[in-house]
Write a structure and sequence with these properties.
It contains 12 helices and 7 strands. It has about 350 residues and is α+β, with helices and mostly antiparallel strands. It is a multi-pass membrane protein.
Length: about 350
């Protein structure tokens, strides 16, 4: 058993030595293909279109919950809704990251103005890739996204192309993440061949998303504030009228001997006092609601913005040559080994 093992190991060493010698004899072929691969890698790096990186980092600080939030659970048991619930919903936790990459936000950004009279989608479709597509599919030449056109009025072709733009950007260009899971920093990065578009898209995407986010978070509070403001304005108008009416009643030359003559003044004065009380309570509730809305409003602070000129992401010449030479050498080694193995089997 040991002899067979020794013989097998000896044969294995001899076989490996034979293969190594064979490959050494083929060094000219390996070096030649390595040089050709390096030249191809260098050429690829030279002609490869550079890509620009637009990075934006911001901090999202959630607003405080409503002062009534502590009593909301107790009040709900009695059928009373005080609002001030927790931070659940579409934007809870890390949902804001997916929201930044949602179709709604990307399309809003693409339909925003890039230059005077031109949307970002129209500018994007002037890229070299899309110009080739327009030559291949002439129907694309007639599809534009005017700034004055409402989103609901888009045709099926416009919807399809806009969705293609969205998928292309999400897949190839846009990246949203949290560098540190323990922190509230959110990083948005756009990588593309157009420097101006990369910067504009990143800025507009974050602005559209954060504006929508703040508006949604404070929507309920804003409705309450608007209702109270309308009621306060109405009561103020009525109170002013009652004040003028009471003053007019006092200016009348009435007979003091007749008590009925003072009833009108007393009624005006009573209504005025009632309106003053109601107005004071509404104004107080209005100010409380405004403070509550201010506390619930998320604070979004931009930390880093893309500044021209943007960093360039491009493969270096030496790196391209090294990768090309390594891959070419590796594949020619595989080919030589397979060829020799095949010849030995067929011999």
């Amino acid at each position: 058993m040991n002899n067979n093992t020794n013989i097998s190991l000896k044969d294995l060493i001899q076989k490996l030595t034979e293969w190594i010698v064979y490959l050494i004899k083929q060094w000219k072929v390996i070096v030649l293909f390595g040089i050709l691969g390096a030249a191809m890698g260098f050429t690829y790096a030279y002609f490869k279109q550079p890509k620009y990186v637009a990075d934006l980092t911001f901090v999202l600080e959630e607003g405080k919950t409503s002062p009534l939030g502590a009593y909301a659970g107790l009040a709900s048991q009695f059928g009373v809704d005080l609002g001030g619930g927790g931070n659940s919903g579409v934007f809870a936790g890390e949902n804001i990251i997916e929201f930044l990459k949602s179709r709604l936000m990307v399309e809003k950004t693409l339909l925003a103005p890039f230059t005077k009279g031109q949307s970002m989608a129209d500018y994007y479709m002037q890229s070299e890739v899309w110009l080739k597509r327009k030559d291949k599919y002439p129907l694309l030449k007639n599809i534009t996204f005017p700034l004055a056109q409402q989103r609901e009025a888009f045709s099926i072709a416009q919807d399809s192309v806009l969705f293609m733009l969205y998928r292309e950007i999400i897949t190839n260009n846009l990246n949203v993440n949290k560098p540190d899971k323990k922190l509230s920093f959110i990083a948005v990065s756009y990588i593309g061949p157009d420097e101006l578009f990369a910067k504009a898209f990143t800025d507009k995407l974050v602005k559209e998303a954060t504006d929508f986010y703040v508006e949604t978070k404070t929507k309920r509070s804003k409705i309450n504030v608007d209702k109270l403001q309308l009621k306060a304005d109405s009561l103020e108008l009525l109170l002013n009228r009652k004040t003028y009416a009471a003053a007019a009643s006092q200016d009348l030359n009435l007979n003091p001997a007749r008590k009925v003559a003072t009833v009108g003044l007393e009624l005006e004065t009573r209504d005025k006092v009632v309106l003053q009380t109601m107005y004071g309570e509404v104004v107080k509730n209005l100010e409380i609601s405004k403070m509550s809305m201010a506390q619930e409003t998320p604070i979004i602070q931009i930390i880093d913005k893309p500044i021209l000129p943007l960093p360039v992401k491009k493969m270096g010449f030496l790196k391209g040559a090294f990768i090309g030479g390594f891959l070419a050498g590796f594949f020619i080694l595989i080919w030589l080994i397979v060829r020799k193995f095949y010849r030995e089997i067929m011999a």
